[in-house]
């Protein structure tokens, strides 16, 4: 994930050595007093100053296109850290670039799902066309090419992003056309997301500032739409089939008025009953008083179908005894050990 | 089981991400209800609802909230109870296959914000942070806009809706590190360090952000909270099994006709979901799939009827994870798929723990030579042995997750590995299968 100690990359980014692998471009805009004021504005957002470091590094990239030695120094000065401490953080994260980037960052997802659907072919084709490997920049400074890990858009696979805006369901030819347009200085509209700006603009947004320079343009970016068929696939199917969630008992009312519970819709797999029967049995068993019990029994699916009756579901294993476990009064579920997937 | 849109119900509305749309569709009514309750009543309500964390581990949300040390009436608080409390939203979606939180934040960011306000009130926090994945710029853009709208409308800031309750909400962008989806690594990252996991205990509920009591919840979890408040716990429990109820966003991707987000009650089966998504692409058959992302052991066609809830999936030998259902067919090489996932873990290992840092590196080398046809008979056991030396031997779950795809593919598809061995190596295993490698790119 980070540079190997002692490597050329490592010395360039630790901040201990102020000379980058590639000397800064002659036209590199300097960080100014304005940058410093913005850095202080970021710091003021947080209870503790150091929390501002990640947004500050985005800010540095918004001016210079990568994390420069000057940017590392600025962050270190403003936060009272050593340059080594800042460099250690900057080198940890993929989005902080250690060499000058092109105007646009083209990222091709080559993780498994995108890869089998063509993502690897897209990356290979672009790489060959441009003569660029991962994390390399075209000589004209138009684009930097990289392969990316999962971009959380698997339902739109294979995906390419430009400055992290989505170009969904790409293939080799569409990706080639996209890159060719970028190199001509055009900005093809993302298939999902806001009008393309550039890598520095997006970095400014990630630092928590407006990259659009005005309310109108910002609103247009927020409201930019796109093709989102996979996002809506389930919703549309539900409408087509007339399926819906159980209605809330008294919408908008305090939860004390929970009203009559309706039919539950999933089996526990333990009783051999349909979910409706199992839930209804459990409610009957759990009822506190005879009146409640009668009410619960009245709502039992054996009395007639109501919402949630799965279409055509067969009664399974009806010879088994009815549920013995009450629906309430059980101990809370035992949590799984917190190691499911690296997530909380 | 039928589709049951709840969290996704507003997504098709014009400008669903705007406050005006959200308010028109019952938005922020749950907040008014919640502010009329006491924090303890809210914690009790969420406990009763059975809501479990949607980030992968399935920890009961109300219980997590109740672990936050609170001052006792009539006593001067000391220790953690005297410290500020924080709510941190884990919006660092990056587990391969997982793609539910980004669409939610793009389409309905106010539902997350309303959930954040209610949950912060319940744990008596006055500062919440949404840690959103840096690459998710469009979601970030809409979140930032929604926070601004909520502020201007009086849902955030001082004296929210005249209740006397104050809350500030920061949208904080990450910078590209899968490990920051691990809650303690996320906290380190939010504090401005490299995102590396912390030793637990102490758990974040006692010593989290800035060493203070902190709740970290996933996006989908928090977006569920307003519905729990509006519908009540009994209504919420109408969805799915008693011990892991609620509506759930299932994300289907890969070799299916209509990939996308399908919201259905917990406990819906893959057979039902595949049918909704139009099935596996015509002319092909399901070969393997993940129930909850790349860190959850593979399932096969024999698992099509496993109810996809936390407990049923665990009983069947995998994990519900993030309900990221990646579908692969008979043209896909499971060994190559596993190599890709393993390369991902090797890239994303933060380097803190030796077994994970070194183990994932060597797993890539072994899998690569198998895919290249240079493997040996001993490599299959070496893979298992390496996995055994990673699993359970690191601070966080990243290393554990890295072994899932390898162990499960060896369990269900060992012949696919053997088929990649040179003939003389197959002979050493005592059985020449004469199998052709499947789907390996030449």
Q: How does this model look, in words?
A:
The complex is a heterodimer of chains A (about 350) and B (about 450). Chain A contains twelve helices and five strands. Chain A is about 40% helix and about 5% strand. Mean pLDDT of chain A is about 75; it is low at about 1-20 and about 250-344. Chain A has about 350 residues and is mostly helical. Chain A starts with 7 loop residues before the first helix and ends in a 46-residue tail after the last helix. The longest helix of chain A has 19 residues, at about 110-130. A five-stranded mixed β-sheet of chain A has the order 2-3-1-4-5. Chain A folds into three domains: about 10-90, no CATH class; about 105-225, Glutaredoxin; about 245-330, no CATH class. With about 450 residues, chain B is of the alpha/beta class. Chain B folds into three domains: about 20-235, NADH-ubiquinone oxidoreductase 51kDa subunit (Rossmann fold), CATH 3.40.50; about 245-330, Roll (Ubiquitin-like (UB roll)); about 335-430, NADH-ubiquinone oxidoreductase 51kDa subunit, iron-sulphur binding domain (de novo design (two linked rop proteins)). Chain B has a four-stranded parallel β-sheet with strand order 3-2-1-4, with helices on both faces. A four-stranded mixed β-sheet of chain B has the order 6-5-8-7, covered by helices on one side. In chain B, a hairpin with a 5-residue loop joins strand 5 (about 245-255) and strand 6. Chains A and B meet through helix 3, helix 6, helix 8, helix 9 and helix 10 of A and helix 5, helix 7, strand 3, helix 8 and strand 4 of B.
